[in-house]
């Protein structure tokens, strides 16, 4: 894999059954492959191509991944597939030995992924945008579940954005399964459910992939609202703190409203039968008056909470006011004026504090783990 990742295919043209496909620019190297912007040279149609070398995944696995996504791509919030070219020849002639791989071709989403959007403060303080985006993701996941597909790797990196940022699309069905009851520890630690995280390799006991997806969605909502995940993994002491006293945990760390705290407590539940369903989740988010603390609550909150506010929420608001992001109703003055009054520390110190204490999403682009097949 190291050899492959270091071997850029940029500029290379691959012959496909739909004509020559030119790989124009490498977007990102993930754990299972590399994604390029490419162009069908005959039609000049630009697409995204995930190149998976044979050394990483069998042609059968690529076909499975592609087919699962195809099965649900009719939903407006799931990324569109275009073509699968198995066993494409990608090798150099000459110095390097030739190598083969599968090309998975998708519509190109020019807004990048949701991880980058969150880390670029496109969501801080924007309640309507958060709600709208989250409900789109939830709707995509619900559609998958209704069609018997469980994603298992729901995280901001696997959600793509339209150029204007108004629409999002679930992608990366590399870990998706058609079985609700599974016995495989896979996903990404920050978003991974308790039952999945604590599952031991070889243990035949099964757990619900459906319920695990619900847990991951909870973490996505927190990330949209605060720019942070609650813990880096279930094994981290932060999770024990949450478990010991959930309300205290949220109050000491995040500038989130009581309604959101209560909702998250119904998502991050170890017993899957007590975990909230997607239907209930949708209603609670749709009906929630605010995700954030009020100005008064914030003034009385501990430094870490205000640190998150300054590091993420305030920054999102500033960007909105400066017009970098589309401005909805211009009702953002209140907090802004009084912010220094209520912040006895310098913003720089607070930022430093926040980074030290919390898994700030910016510092944690995570790759999935898969420790057994199932
Ligand atoms: N259709 C697309 N349009 C724009 N960008 C894309 C598209 N598909 C993928 N990307 C970018 O490439 C990244 C990796 O893609 P993807 O998640 O499908 O593969 P991966 O991460 O290698 O797979 P895995 O999660 O199994 O390791 C995404 O996080 C996103 O930034
Ligand atoms: Mg991915």
Outline the structure in words.
This is non-specific serine/threonine protein kinase. Residues 21-291 form the Protein kinase domain. It comes from Thelephora terrestris. It is an enzyme of class 2 (transferase). By secondary structure, the chain is α+β, with helices and mostly antiparallel strands. The protein has two domains: 13-106, 2-Layer Sandwich (Phosphorylase Kinase, domain 1); 114-372, Transferase(Phosphotransferase), domain 1. It is 40% helix and 17% strand. It has helices spanning 2-6, 59-72, 114-119, 127-146, 194-197, 209-226, 237-244, 246-253, 258-267, 278-287, 295-299, 303-321, 333-342, 347-357; strands spanning 13-16, 19-29, 34-40, 45-53, 81-89, 100-107, 159-161, 168-170, 181-182, 186-187, 207-208, 369-370. The strands form four sheets. The chain has a six-stranded antiparallel β-sheet with strand order 1-2-3-4-6-5, covered by helices on one side. A hairpin with a 4-residue loop joins β2 (19-29) and β3. It is globular, with a radius of gyration of 22 Å. The chain starts with a helix and ends with a strand. The model is unreliable at 1-6 and 326-357 (pLDDT under 50). The structure holds adenosine-5'-triphosphate and magnesium ion (MG). Adenosine-5'-triphosphate binds at residues 27-28, 30-33, 35, 48, 50, 79, 106-109, 112-113, 153, 157-158, 160, 171-172, 174, 367-368.
């Amino acid at each position: 894999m190291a050899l492959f990742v270091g071997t850029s295919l940029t500029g290379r043209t691959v012959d496909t059954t739909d004509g020559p496909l030119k790989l124009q620019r490498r977007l990102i190297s993930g754990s299972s492959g590399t994604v390029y912007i490419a162009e069908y040279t005959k039609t000049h149609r630009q697409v995204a191509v995930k190149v998976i070398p044979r050394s990483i995944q069998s042609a059968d696995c690529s076909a499975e991944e592609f087919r699962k996504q195809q099965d649900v791509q009719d939903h407006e919030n799931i990324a569109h597939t275009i073509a699968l070219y198995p066993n494409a020849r990608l090798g150099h002639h000459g110095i390097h030995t030739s190598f083969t791989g599968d090309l998975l071709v998708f519509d190109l989403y020019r807004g990048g992924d949701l991880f980058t959007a969150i880390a670029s403060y496109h969501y801080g303080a924007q309640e309507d945008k958060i709600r709208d985006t989250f409900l789109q993701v939830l709707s995509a996941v619900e559609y998958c579940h209704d069609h018997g597909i469980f994603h298992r790797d729901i995280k901001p990196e696997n959600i793509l954005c339209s150029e204007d940022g108004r629409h999002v699309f679930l992608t990366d069905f590399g870990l998706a399964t058609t079985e609700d009851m599974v016995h495989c520890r896979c996903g990404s630690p920050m978003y991974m459910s308790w039952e999945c995280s604590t599952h031991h390799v070889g243990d035949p006991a099964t757990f619900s992939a459906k319920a695990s997806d619900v847990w991951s969605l909870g973490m996505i909502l927190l990330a949209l609202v605060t720019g942070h995940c609650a813990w880096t993994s279930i094994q981290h002491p932060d999770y024990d703190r949450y478990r010991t006293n959930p309300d205290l945990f949220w109050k000491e760390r995040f500038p989130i409203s009581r309604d959101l705290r209560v909702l998250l407590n119904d998502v991050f539940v170890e017993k899957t039968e007590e975990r909230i369903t997607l239907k209930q989740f949708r209603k609670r988010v749709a009906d929630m008056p605010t995700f954030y603390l009020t100005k008064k609550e914030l003034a009385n909150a501990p430094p870490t909470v205000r640190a998150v506010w300054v590091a993420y929420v305030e920054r999102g608001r500033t960007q909105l006011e400066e017009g970098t992001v589309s401005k909805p109703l211009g009702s953002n003055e209140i907090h802004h004026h009084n912010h220094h009054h209520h912040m006895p520390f310098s913003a720089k110190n607070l930022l430093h504090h926040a980074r030290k204490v919390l898994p700030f999403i910016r510092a944690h682009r995570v790759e999935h783990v898969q420790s057994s097949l199932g």
